[in-house]
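Issue: ligand-bound run for nicotinamide-adenine-dinucleotide - logging full I/O for the record.

Environment: standard queue, default settings, no custom constraints.

Inputs:
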Amino acid sequence: MAKEVSQGDNHASVKAPPEPSPLRKAKFFKANMRILITGGAGFIGSHLVDKLMENEKNEVIVADNYFTGSKDNLKKWIGHPRFELIRHDVTEVIGTLNVLGLAKRVGARILLTSTSEVYGDPLVHPQTEDYWGNVNPIGVRSCYDEGKRVAETLMFDYHRQHGLEIRIARIFNTYGPRMNIDDGRVVSNFIAQAIRDEPLTVQLPGTQTRSFCYVSDMVDGLIRLMEGDNTGPINIGNPGEFTMLELAETVKEMINPEVKIVTVENTPDDPRQRKPDITKAKELLGWEPKIKLREGIPLMEEDFRQRLGIPSNKN
Ligand SMILES: NC(=O)c1ccc[n+]([C@@H]2O[C@H](COP(=O)([O-])OP(=O)(O)OC[C@H]3O[C@@H](n4cnc5c(N)ncnc54)[C@H](O)[C@@H]3O)[C@@H](O)[C@H]2O)c1
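Outputs:
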């Protein structure tokens, strides 16, 4: 309930934040919860929906403008009595701020899917959560990196000022079925190229590294973070580290040994190395990834082949 309180010496009368919902600390699989997932028609979001819908008490609402996501990712839930899909652009003003406002109004707990990009081109390796990052504020990649940094700031401001229950996950590269085929991410690029019999295009120098987390591990980490008591930020990613050349070699070997690997110019400010330190996730969430890259690639290949309509000729 909202109540009037006086603040400081000037006796200014301001509204106290509403009583938080008693459900904000509840467990996803134990209580009747109504869960809003913005971007839930996307890659990670739709896998999260699948998992949360497993609990017959949960009601799941997705707000998505289909900018990169698709109704197809949610087709098995459309029409389900516990599921609702709303076409909505959360950026009508500023996305995170809007959702924070909503969480404050209804006393909900809120999770931000932040990113390893907040570390920029890191000078610390592997990256721990207390590293502040090395981001070029005016570079071509900055709007994503700085956007997420501002989103983290807003989350903490609402937490400090209004006592909002927040959780921040710093997601490292994630891959798996339902990834957008042509959005330029490296794993989806290489897999689609290998299936289409096209050369795998490694951006120079090829020695830059990334760490790849399979999507079911990611969803498990996000749920544990949301159910635990720690605000984060917490790195959720797979610490297995690969150079882009190693990744290309692995995809070539596993999907299409005939394809060529070629090098192409890189985009500016491409981080040279990326590997999460997941000590915090292990200690605070009891989480670590289970699926190795070599186990995840075939699962993604199967999904890509279906969507591209190119069956395997291995057998
Ligand atoms: N996949 C990764 O490797 C990775 C890494 C770091 C962080 N993340 C973060 O995780 C989240 C999910 O990423 P993903 O890989 O599933 O991407 P995705 O593009 O598949 O999903 C994003 C979803 O958000 C929707 N969307 C975009 N703008 C919107 C708007 N204004 N209003 C409503 N919906 C909107 C899209 O249509 C899409 O369904 C994102 O916040 C992303 O920044 C992902």
